[in-house]
Specification:
Layout (H helix, E strand, L loop, with lengths): L7 H20 L12 E14 L11 E8 L4 E18 H13 L9 E14 L4 E9 L5 E13 L1
Antiparallel strand pairs: 1-6, 2-5, 3-4, 3-5, 3-6
Length: about 160
Amino acid sequence: MFPYRITKSLVRRVTCLLLMMALSVFFLPSASSQNTPTTMTMSSWLDSETFSLKGQSGNTCGTSYYYYYDSFYVGENIHGSISASSPIAFYLMTSADWTQDGAGAWSRGCNPTAFRLTLPSITSHSFDYTITSSGRYYLVFWNTGTTAASISYSLYSYSVQS
């Protein structure tokens, strides 16, 4: 029997370690670039998921939105990739944004106004965002259409070191 529980945290740490080892092969200075500073990007997988959202009916969102949250630190960079079978809106919100305008916005006609990043109508998009204040951040996916949407996303954090 395997003596360790495989948790999301363990998977993240092992993935980060393997990625750092793989990246070190590509970023070791060669004989021709000994005087050039080396930049190395370290990355950590945070989350990846595929899900479906019902289409809207009337002026309420109901179950047409989904959110994921995680805690980040000042200066941390996140990279996300999103694909959807039909146009969706995406919001990146701080905990304060979510409290002020997040969950409540969907019950008031689906029009949040407090957010750090918004992508109003996408089917495929990648984004990068640098965290400006430490805390919990929400990634909100909202199906703005009337038909169901299948959505996939992946999220990484990364830092650049010299």
